[in-house]
């Protein structure tokens, strides 16, 4: 079967045929809700502002839950909502068992959980265990050496009040140590100096955070995304970290050192295995669906995979997979296959599930990286690979980075520099308010000044236009993709992948009921003719289009003969990708 393809095109075939023998990954395992879930990340400050104060809030999320249900997602992962001074957008927590007053109240949260569950949407909370705010009562008590709290944080003597205990560097640059004039000791902060690291070598601290987990479980939470977990423990001897030797890195920057004393220590994994037992025991005792844990780790793959299991104990249901962030405009078929296989081939053997993510609140938006007309194709890749799919709010409508000046910036890691570095490193561009419609402030609120500026692009890119248009749209494509995930090939289908040309890759998802899909992706700079049957010999000859991207000349219902499928050149920049689904006729 020869199929001509053009630059940046993706074709998806939903097909039906008899299965041959295969050594590919099988999904016939013990199923639970999360294993094939679409998890939708909500950045609460920017999602919806119900009281018109310029900040998103819990009641704003409640009012937009019907959108999540309509989009076909299974769970909402909500970035931190805890009480906080907001030095680091809520990751500096002053009370782990209360809500930031700008977001609402605990009663609002309870209503959110109830309303979500009525729509069959799970709620996943961010858990930020590595540190607290310096405004937390624990820190104030510890700084004053109050009995029982002396060692809740990582305190250390230095040579003097101006010379820190060692050379450790904060993720946000400069020394990871801050001197306390009150206690006359240094405390560790691997992030901002207002985020002191908790001391998990004190068993009382582990007990406190475990009680935090149970507090939110009792309020109906279905799981947690554990933030910045690799930094949880530090070297007990507080030794200096070695120099990295990386070129172009200045002595105050995080990458100046190799972080073998402040990251990925064995004790961290033991806590994750323990918390998995806490979650499993809670589910067993209370009943209902599994309560899950997903963890954020930017560590090397072997260290990241240990969050699944150490071979004897299970840990996180999955650690986040950032491999798709490595796909770029010039990626070849082999590059994409390597990115996917890099995760699949490093996973532990057994009953473990992969996951995929295009972007989040810390990354350039996917539509900016790949081009706004190409988001359909990358949503397809994210949603149709085996396992869990994670969507950052706005990706379903192709939102691009917003426009934020250095003066308007809120990201402490980027504002801790000059204007030039802000423009290249700030996370604010991916955090601007959601585009609901073409009214004032994109429907985020009814006119109050917003905490970050609303992007000028909202008039051409917003949910209401895409939802109601008679034409195809990114949102309509996204809905069809999430609907297709409910079909057998996507829930339990085998997975095979091949490079069929230098810049053309294909993969299949085929169920034991003999139905499935073929996906073909061309990232090259010119057209190509490929023979799929050399790699997938069971393909049939006549196919029907089920879904097409907004740039495709094919429409739903078209019939295609596989020996003459053509993809046409698109004269646009940044991976001008189109795709369509086809079903055997």
Keywords summarizing the entry:
about 575 residues, alpha/beta, TIM Barrel, Oligo-1,6-glucosidase, domain 2, Immunoglobulin-like, 3 domains, four-stranded antiparallel β-sheet, about 25% helix, globular, disordered C terminus, hydrolase, EC 3.2.1.20, transmembrane, glycosidase, glycoprotein
Task: Note down, in words, how this protein is organized.
The structure is a single chain. The protein is an alpha/beta fold and 585 residues long. It has 3 domains: 38-127 and 321-478, TIM Barrel, CATH 3.20.20; 130-199 and 235-260, Oligo-1,6-glucosidase, Domain 2 (Oligo-1,6-glucosidase, domain 2), CATH 3.90.400.10; 490-574, Golgi alpha-mannosidase II (Immunoglobulin-like, Sandwich), CATH 2.60.40.1180. 23% of the residues lie in helices and 18% in strands. The protein contains 15 helices and 22 strands. The strands form 6 sheets. An 8-stranded parallel beta sheet has the order 13-12-11-7-4-3-15-14, covered by helices on one side. Strands 2-18-17-16 form a 4-stranded antiparallel beta sheet. Strand 16 (494-501) and strand 17 (504-510) form a beta hairpin. The longest helix has 21 residues, at 266-286. The protein is globular and about 75 Å long. The two termini are 16 Å apart. The model is unreliable at 14-30 and 564-585 (pLDDT under 50).
